[in-house]
Amino acid sequence: MAVKNKTYSLHHVVILLAIAWPMLYAILKYQSRENEEDLTYNKPNLVGIVISNDKPIFSKASWFDGSYQSTSDDYNNDHWAYKEKMVRLNNQFYYKAFNQIRVNGFVLGKNDYAFSEGYIFSAFGDDLIKEGKVKTLLQKAKVVQDTLKKKGIDLLLVYAPGKGQACKEFVEDKYVHPILNTNHNLFVSNSKNIGINYLDLYSYFDKLKPTSKYPLFPKFGHHWSYYGECLAVDTIIKHIEKLHNCDMPAIIWNKVDVVDSARSRDADVLKSMNLYHEPNQNMKLAYPEIQFENDSSKNTTRVLTISDSYWYGPVYMGVGQACFANGQFWYYANRVVPSPRQGEKVEVWELNLKQEIESNHVIMILYSDGNLPMFGNNFIEDAYELYTSPKTYYARAEKNKQIQVYAKQVRETPALLKKSTQKSNDLQIPLDSAIKLDAMNFLSPKK
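The structure assignment produced for this chain is given below.
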């Protein structure tokens, strides 16, 4: 009986190559490493995704408690050869097929405008705080303001515009409804009634919008545009000069570049969308070529800025060094920028609060409307207690220090931060709250 020879069709070869290609591609990437110690060769180039470069280390203890298997799964999932391509293709599919962006908390509006959903809620008053809570917070701010004024220090509250408010015409119809009240209205009216020093950039931008030569908010950005940022900085400097009776270096520009492709933070949401092909932006954006007045005799008013991410733009401009006498930026009253200790990330709780406050001439708290529910991130409450009841403040600060140590560890460890981020998404709570829960678990682990 003749033996029938096996034959393989082209289809079989193609199928075999398709099955084997991911493994072959991973081997090729591995072979292309610069050196044997390089563990980043397979790290995907994706924005907004927490990924650890630390390969899990096997040990008997980690094997039997299951942590090695868990961390290995996470590591392999983050570093497989096609991670970046698959994420980008998946995001592209949702963007094209369903007009959705795979950025946590963000949605697309009309004409491809990207919005933080929370900022839409703020624009229409859907995140309204009880007025009593706002009033209590601002009454404490007034006590802090009056206390600091006696020391020659001014407190200034700045209310910045959010994109939901500034670009309402591009918000999807399902979010639109009559507005009864907003947090911005509550903060401004109560600031005025209580006698707080405040600057309302929210209303200022509203007035600018109809006649502005250039967009104040970009299509694919979360914050005000670079042009809007320059206008805001100029207005803030002039307001502080009047408030503190001082002369500060001015921000100046004589030339404006107008381009059709967003630069820097004007495309921060677009970068986080992690698409395979970026869409046409269809928007002319303005980029003033700024300079700061070079007069060291004017750069003597030290300003401490406590703010959300809106102030990162002015930080990149160099406002702190050029105009605010090297004043610090406290990001959400937590991270200190620039760090006072070179090569080390420093958080506010590690500093002497009284000493830091009193080393400045102006304390500016700037938050956009979407973050008004967390205005100041407890800075006002802490400063109020510090100056009205220092004994209880220092006792509480000491008690919370251990939690803060562990919370900082979570923020600085990608694997731990990834778990906290997942908990934040699962429980629908702010990331800081999830980090605090995990930090408390370090102190009292489950038995």
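Interim note for the steering committee: The first helix runs from residue 10 to 31. The first strand starts at residue 106 and ends at 108.
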